[in-house]
Specification:
Length: about 325
């Protein structure tokens, strides 16, 4: 399944139907008055945040969003029917910007909306009002009005939609550090895990239920490697999804399997984050010393603690599900 987290779309709300010019014509009623009905309203285009949607793929397949037009008014005072509105469901965390006419044009920096809660709606393009039929123009001095107005056009424009996931905690780490195994162990999510790098290809959010009905959300993103800022591996592409996390957990393979060095990994992870967005390093964070059940971990953890005495290090085994409770005891969200 394709994962889409940024997309340019064109939206056009429905035009209003035209008002009608008509006069009552019936046998034995020679000069029947005006009876032209109003046009119906065009449909709006509404974006609605929905927790059952996790990416913008629906818009990838339909990047031109349309809403129906209002019907024209008719004689005998028949009003045209208004169109239904078109509601597009987008994931929670979708930010909407106005975009230029051409694909490469700059996007307006200030967003026009940020949908952060389930059910939240945003009126992207308003449908045009229907025109008025000639009955509206009847007056004592104008008994035979021929004026009627056309429907107004629906609003339209180009927009840029970007998903920035909203989660309490973001997991960052090298490929194979065990991020997805950890998410699977603490939440009901079932992210794919495997002993090869880049198993996770797009962000996955898990919900962790804590005592006293506390719930926190955790985002697992694809692994980051040194040089991600030069687009190595999956690059910085998915770091947008941790920008809004309150806290980051650096997941390290403390056993240094595959000849890795957890301290070097930690340093290059922080470097990559800084190169993407220096404010990421200002967030609260802790280090998850994963694979702690393996004998090789003990020495690395000692060295790590000695080198970074102020950093909170939480020893766990995501695979054996040990030490997990310490994560939530020791962090304060
Ligand atoms: N021994 C041991 N192996 C683990 C532990 N946690 C994860 N693994 C193994 O490490 C490998 C990678 O785990 P994943 O959870 O897929 O790693 P990831 O960090 O999500 O990797 P990417 O999605 O590729 O970035 C799998 O074979 C896991 O079984 C652990 O605590 N101990
Ligand atoms: Mg993974």
């Amino acid at each position: 399944m394709r994962f889409v987290d940024q997309i340019r779309v064109h939206a056009k709300a429905g035009d209003g139907g035209n008002g009608c010019c008509s006069f009552r014509r019936e046998k034995f009623i020679p000069h029947g008055g005006p009876d032209g009905g109003d046009g119906g309203n065009g449909g709006d285009i509404i974006l609605q945040a929905d927790h059952d949607t996790d990416n913008l793929v629906a818009l990838f397949f339909e990047p031109l969003v349309r809403s129906g037009r209002g019907a024209h008014g008719k004689g005998k005072n028949k009003h045209g029917r208004s169109s239904q509105h078109t509601t597009v469901r987008v994931p929670i965390g979708t930010i909407i910007h106005r975009a230029g006419l051409q694909p490469g044009d700059p996007v307006e920096e200030e967003p026009i909306a940020d949908l952060t809660e389930h059910g939240q709606q945003f009126l992207l393009c308003k449908g045009g009002d229907g025109g008025k039929g000639n009955t509206h123009f009847k007056s004592s001095t104008n008994r035979v009005p021929r004026q009627h107005t056309k429907g107004y056009p629906g609003e339209e424009g180009w927009f840029y939609l970007e998903l920035r996931t909203i989660a309490d905690i973001g997991l960052v780490g090298y490929p194979n550090a065990g991020k997805s195994t950890l998410l699977g162990a603490i939440s009901a999510a079932h992210p794919k895990t495997a002993p090869y790098p880049f198993t996770t290809l797009h962000p996955v959010i898990g919900v962790v239920d804590l005592p006293e009905y506390r719930r926190i959300t955790v985002a697992d993103i694809p692994g980051i490697i040194e040089g991600a800022h030069e687009n190595k591996g999956l690059g910085h592409e998915f770091l947008r999804h941790i920008v809004r996390c309150k806290m980051l957990l650096f997941v390290l393979d403390m056993a240094g399997t595959e000849g890795r060095n957890p301290i070097a990994d930690y340093q290059s992870l922080r470097k990559e984050l800084r190169l993407y967005d220096p404010t990421l390093l200002k967030k609260d964070f802790a280090v998850i010393a994963n694979k702690a059940e393996l004998a090789e971990s003990a020495d690395n953890i000692k060295v790590f603690r000695a080198k970074y005495p102020k950093v909170q290090v939480i020893e766990i085994s995501a695979l054996e599900k040990t030490g997990l409770e310490k994560i939530f005891q020791s962090i304060d969200l």
